[in-house]
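Hey Z.,

So I finally got round to the MGD thing we talked about over coffee. Here's the setup:
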Amino acid sequence: MSETRTTCPYCGVGCGVIAREDEGKVSVRGDDAHPANFGRLCVKGAALGETTGLTGRLLYPEVAGARVSWEVATAETGARLRAIIDEYGPQAVAFYASGQLLTEDYYAANKLMKGFIGAANIDTNSRLCMSSAVTGYKRALGGDVVPCSYEDVENSDLVILVGSNAAWAHPVLYQRLVKAKQANAKMRVVVIDPRRTATCDIADQHLAIAPGSDAGLFVGLLRAIAQQRDVATFTDGAAALAAAQPWNIARVAAFCGLTEQEVAEFYAAFIAAPRAITLYTMGINQSASGSDKCNAIINVHLASGKFARPGCGPFSLTGQPNAMGGREVGGLATMLAAHMNFEPDDLARVARFWGTERLAQTPGLMAVDLFAAIGRGEVKAVWIMGTNPAVSLPDSHAVSQALAACPLVIVSEVAEDTETSRFAHIRFPALSWGEKNGTVTNSERRISRQRAFLPAPGEAKGDWWIIAQVAKALGYGDAFRWQHPHEVFCEHAALSGFENQGQRAFDISGLANLSRQAWDNLMPVRWPVCSTDKEWELTRGWRADGQLRMVPVRPQSTRARTGPLYPLLLNSGRIRDQWHTMTRTGTVARLMQHIDQPIVEVSPGDAAHFQLREGGLARITSLNGMMVAKVVIHAGQRQGSLFVPMHWNACFARLGKVNALVAAQTDPDSGQPESKQVAVRIAPWQPAWQGEIISREAVILPRHVQWWRKATDRLHHLTVCGDKRINDDLLALCQQRGWQAQIAQAGALWHLLAWEEGRLMLGMWSGPTLPAVDLALIRAAFSDGPQTAAERHALLSGHENGRPAQGRIVCSCFGVGEMRIQEAIAGGCRSVEALGLKLKCGTNCGSCVPELKGMLSPAPDFSRNLP
Ligand SMILES: Nc1nc2c(c(=O)[nH]1)N[C@H]1C(S)=C(S)[C@@H](COP(=O)(O)OP(=O)(O)OC[C@H]3O[C@@H](n4cnc5c(=O)[nH]c(N)nc54)[C@H](O)[C@@H]3O)O[C@H]1N2
Ligand SMILES: Nc1nc2c(c(=O)[nH]1)N[C@H]1C(S)=C(S)[C@@H](COP(=O)(O)OP(=O)(O)OC[C@H]3O[C@@H](n4cnc5c(=O)[nH]c(N)nc54)[C@H](O)[C@@H]3O)O[C@H]1N2
Ligand code: SF4
Ligand SMILES: [Mo]
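And the result:
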């Protein structure tokens, strides 16, 4: 038994985790000493121990689908890249990396691409996530500096969450806010989001803003502030104010779909608050004018003086565990390295430091353009590391076509099967969380260690190592001699301080000389960590003139336009218990209890208008594509907009992927796609039959069947439906395998059990609607096998008579279902605390508390409909 302090690999809160490994069994708990979480974990973090198994892992290098040695794989990669570079030049090669790589991996990838291959075509999934925020900070502050900390969130008078569902996406930070608000009766919370989310649970004001209209609200706020303060002291302050002049309260209210009173109340609260902090995430960034929205937010903090003081500031929350680390190394096509840009002095300096004559001189292709260039055949080789672009980029059909036609696709992955890796010619097995070793930086600029506590499985290797091997194969070995990630880190830290007399904000040169042991033991630390006493202040601008700048913002409508054919706007985002493309959370049964298939949230008015039924299925169609989802009628959903999760994809469902519908519209300044708004139509779909299939081995279904894969331990579980029955297909399968089929048929009901020498191999329970089957009973039948005739009979019917069902799971930490909670409420539990005492629900991570409250409240409650 051993314990290791490490960091959670999911969201940008960056919680400290203590992992314990006991004869192969991993368990985790929050690290009390970590300043991001002080011991708390959310449900995803708490389930980390369940994700360390090796099922579904990619464990060996592969070329053309065949296992090869590392020597062969890296030599082959080097030779193929070299051939393309020699024939078409370095611009024909690209890397597409991830905010989930460690800083050391990221640094190595950036160095190889920009420094030695000699093109800047290294972009990352952060383009889909943070790039508008980066542009906003750089334009205003002259550097990519996040000027806030989690303590500022706790110690503010007014906390504004805009385009952020922190209750689900940054749960531990949200819990810190909940606690701070409980302790400070004067604190006010405003949530700005077109939908009423779980985050609204603590809101004093919820502004259900029209999709994409946030810039109007903040530009109007600038105008209101300027009526009382002089803002012309900032560079371009007068211009920003001139742009804001037309935005009086009436115009803002009309543009944002709010009442004048709501707007006025918000403005008055902001102006009156001694301290105010604005947390913003994807509802702001993922927009074709996202950079301007970020600057509209930063402008009001500068103008009001609620900036660079405790409890104040524009705080962009990072999504991925190391989005910040990527920004620090400069791992975007539009940055050079360590907060340096494609400017003569910076170029010369980085070339000197890396000892290269091949340094890229101009920015490279940003994500959406990069995949378009692959599609046009201009980029002929792409190396994808730690991201799943066939799922997460907009217009995924075009992305898949581009990958299918690309002459060389290399994928570094931990998962064996992803939509992207299906296109790979070369696959590298990467070390996963718990095995890899390095650093990550969270939203508040805090660098923490991810430490290995598990042995490397199969032949998996750290991403930095794989990159260094390919660099060697390309002939650049001298610059990639590292033997350990500690050496990569020190080089990165040294570059941050190299010829940095206080011009560049990012400086961790104080860590450049850490010994291996000191690096191993590094405690969480916020940057800067300078090696000399330099001036480092948040109040200064990081441009040569040292000034802070306002950006004139002219609010724009969404690029997506609704009309008679596509009358609704589709919004997409996160659900509480899944992580992105589900490669690591989609197989954990506990994490699929909360929501187990793609849903679409619809307002009651739209549901009536489009004849959608709660729990029924619907087809959603845009100009780009189509998906199928289960209807959830949600009173907190704005009329005219729909919401679907971003997570499902071809590995987990047929037609479950939202990016099949999203158009590739991007912000001209940041290149970030407008992922939050797509013009769509919706129509109910009543399939002729629905059912559950549970089997020992994977079943391949005909193309006309709609299916959703459910997470189960060891078994395969598909929920299925369609217009054409598949009874004969399954009987044919039984015959082919020599399984004995036992059938129960009554009208449209059709149940099948397939046996092989008394062992249950497959079961299907189907009917005109989805039969309610007892999954626990069925699972047990696969492990023990029913003993008596009565048991077999119960199994064929799908449930044991009289056994109470759990209902939908609300508390994933303790597996507490809706029915038990309702029973407890009926039995006298009147508060969340009382429910917690009786059932334990809500007492661990707390992220189901908003739902518990909803179930307790007698008023017409929106959370009952919450998925
Ligand atoms: N459970 C879970 N947590 C995660 C992740 C995950 O996959 N799962 N991913 C992590 C990552 S990488 C990221 S980037 C973060 C994202 O964290 P968030 O940005 O908080 O999450 P989202 O659900 O994408 O979007 C947030 C909200 O934006 C709202 N929104 C949409 N359009 C608009 C608009 O025009 N204006 C406003 N004001 N709001 C709008 C949506 O309704 C949604 O509630 O989450 C991180 N945390
Ligand atoms: N419509 C819509 N689209 C969106 C969004 C949205 O809100 N709406 N959100 C966007 C945002 S904010 C983001 S961040 C992206 C996320 O989208 P992606 O980055 O595509 O999603 P992930 O599933 O996190 O992909 C990470 C991949 O890396 C693998 N992996 C995990 N650890 C390692 C490792 O250590 N090394 C290597 N080599 N591989 C590893 C995982 O198995 C997984 O396949 O999606 C974006 N797309
Ligand atoms: S809030 Fe949850 S997912 Fe995010 S870092 Fe903490 S434990 Fe991990
Ligand atoms: Mo993200």
